Every structure is written in structure tokens, then in C-alpha cells.
Amino acid sequence: MSTNEELIGREDINDLEAILGITNTDRDEVIHAVKDNAEAIFTWDYEKGQRPALNRLYEKAKVSMWNGETDLPWDTVVDQEKVVAENALANGGFDADVDVAGTPMEHWDELKWLEFGVESQNWMLSQFMHGEQGALVCTAKIVETVPWIDAKYYASTQVMDEARHVEVFAKYLDTKLSGYYPVNAHLKMLLDDIVGDSRWDMTYLGMQIMVEGLALAAFGFMHQMTTEPLLKQLLRYVMSDEARHVAFGVLSLKEFYEQLSDAEMLERQEFAFEAAVRMRDRFMQQEVWERMDVPVKEAIELVMRTPTRQMFQMMLFSKIVPNCKKLGLLDRNDKWLRHRFEEIGVIQFEDWVDTTDEYENFALGNDLAPAGH
Ligand SMILES: [Fe+2]
Ligand SMILES: [Fe+2]
User: Fold this and answer.
1) What is the spatial distance between Cα 324 and Cα 210, in angstroms, rounded to a whole number?
2) How far is the CA of 124 from the centre of ligand 1 (A)?
């Protein structure tokens, strides 16, 4: 069994010093190469529909395509500062639930908080865009590495979906927002690990279950919060695809995991934990605080204590935990992953609905019900 040090490079999960010690030093790089250690697999078994659930998903995907250029109202005028200010106001103001006395933000005026809100949005959307490219690359890898024809078919539709997602986030950043951030170091480490792994199912686990599970929850949160109609619709369209992608992961891995040994399952549990921690680390937005020119550690310590922040942080795991449970990942090997999820405070989602049961609700045209059981 691996130690925390081996899995995430530090013994204490909450060691802020160590988390902030990891930063992106390649800010100007344009090309980033990762060694893909997997074999490309051909199958000569072309019988379609051997896995009926995957076949159904594939047929659905074919008729659910949308066009990022023509289906979204790009002529919407977006006043970013106004939107950011409105959204903050709806939550009681920027510093509603935080006591800034004696902190680096003590003397910030409304304008400075507004600047922070704008940077924060630029950062968030930039990271979504980078994550979407991660999904694009990973799904192309799944087309190559998965041995089942139904899964190759489905994954190929996801490649198209992800291209569209990268495209719309990039366009939104470029034409409606006011700045761009390079990929966050924690997110990059995770994407590198997923792409570099030689085992085909690890791509699914890292991307479809962990990264996309988190994205589905985060997009849902932002979709609910934002008052900006273009972003709202963009997120709604992306979510309709993401729900299928997560379901693809759960359906594929469920079958595969049923026949794995305890030792093999432990490797998957450890990988899920590593991914969970990396994603939690990335949401600290350390680059935004750097850009705001305040001591990063102090600022993050303060923000992490606020109820809104803690709530958001937990909600990010509302899709991941039930899906891990469905895959049998929580309780194998003496409840190894259950204990880790308890440590990071997200186990309470275990009985929420899993994505294979709800993905059809996300189809365009349906009203989205609030997250829950
Ligand atoms: Fe996506
Ligand atoms: Fe996706």
C-alpha cells in the first residue's frame, strides 16, 4: 500500500506550503509533450451492440451533436465587470462571509474586489478550457486503447464533443472575457499522469470519472449561479454532453472492475485518491492571488475557512463519490477509498444519484433538477 508521500508527494493532505510549492514554471510554453505509454489496440470483432448500454449511448450521441458556432448566441453583449458585480451582489457582496480584518485584503475597496472577481472568472474559464483539451486528448487515446468496438465507436463521438467544448470555452475567453491563464500546475500533473499511464482503464478513471465528474458538478454550480445568458447556455450545452461522458466511464469500468483482483483494485483506488487531491489543490486558484499581489498562503488560508468556499469545494465531489461507489471503488481493500474520502470530507455524497441513472435528464430541452438524491 502506498503512502501519501508516494501518491501525492506530501504526508499531510492539507499541507498548504507543499501545495503552493507546486507552480507552473512553463508559462510561455506553446507545445507540451507527454509520453503516451499505451499500446494502440485493433479489434477484429466488429459485432455492434455486444454491450447494449454503450451502443445506446453511441446512438444517443450521434443525434445530440450541436454546433458551437451557430447554436450559441455569440452576438450577446457581455459586460464582464457588470456580470461579476451582479453575481457577487446576489451572494451578499464579495466579502460577505469572510472577516478580512488583519489580512492582506483588509484595505481592499470595492474596485479591488471587482478586479479579483474578474481575474477569478478569467482563471476559472481558462482552467475549464485546459481541462477540455485534456479530455480531447484522453478520449482520442481511448479510441486507440480500448479493446471493445462499442467503446471505440462511442469514444469517437466524445472526441468530437470535446473539440467543441475546447472551441466554445476558447471563444468565450477570447471574445467575452478579459484575460487568460496558463494551465494550473496541479491540473497539468494530473493530465500528464492520465495520458502517461499504460493501462486503458486508467484513462477512463482519471478522465471520465474524476476530471469529468468534477466538471459536471462545477458546470452545474456555475450554470445555476450565472446571470449571463450566453455563458448559461454554453454551460447547459456542454453539460448535456458531459453527463454522457461520465456515464460512458461508469458503464465501461463497471464491467471491467468486476473481474479485477484486490491488488489491481487498490491501484485504481490510489489513483482515484491522487486525482481527487490534485483537483482539490487546483481549485485554490493560487495564480489569481499571485496576480493580485497579496501573500498567497495567507489569502488562501482565509478563503478556505469561509462557508461558501467549503460548500463549493465539497459540491465538486457530488458526482465523483456516488460513481466511485457504483464502481465498487469505495469499499474494496478494507474500505481504502472510503477512508480517504472521509479524510477530505466528501463521503456524504455516496448515496446521491450516480450518473448512469441520471444522464438522460441532462439532454437538451429538459429542465435541470437541483443536485441531490
Ligand atoms: Fe468536455
Ligand atoms: Fe467530457
Assistant:
1) 9
2) 15
Helices (H), the chain: 4-8, 16-21, 52-62, 80-90, 110-145, 149-176, 185-196, 200-203, 212-225, 229-257, 262-282, 286-291, 296-304, 307-315, 320-326, 332-343, 355-358
Nearest to 319 by CA among 276, 368, 278, 354: 354
Residues 362, 368 contacting (CB under 8 angstroms): yes
Q: How distant, in Å, are the alpha carbons of 20, 180, 195, 210, 232 from that of 184?
A: 11, 12, 16, 17, 24
Closest CA to 211 of 241, 245, 185, 183: 245
Rounded Cα distance between 153 and 138, Å, is 15
Percent of the chain having pLDDT more than 70? 98
Amino acid at 315: M
Distance 242 CA to ligand 1 centre (A): 6
Contact indicator for 105, 294 with CB cutoff of 8 Å: yes
CA of 245 to the centre of ligand 2 (A): 5
pLDDT digits (tens, 9 = 90+) for 147-206: 999 999 999 999 999 999 999 999 999 999 999 999 999 999 999 999 999 999 999 999
Nearest to 190 by CA among 172, 207, 204: 207
286-337: pLDDT as tens digits: 999 999 999 999 988 888 888 888 888 888 999 999 999 999 999 999 999 9
Centre a 10 Å sphere on the Cβ of residue 7 and count the other Cβ atoms it contains: 16
| Centre of ligand 1 from the C-alpha of residue 354, in Å | 18
Q: pTM for this structure?
A: 0.94
Ion ligand 2: residue ranges with CB closer than 5 A: 135, 212, 242, 245
Q: What is the Cβ-side half-sphere exposure of residue 278, based on CA atoms within 13 angstroms?
A: 26
Instruction: For cell 474559464, name the residue.
Output: 125
* Distance in Å, CA 164 to ligand 1 centroid: 8
CA within 13 Å, CB half, 313: 21
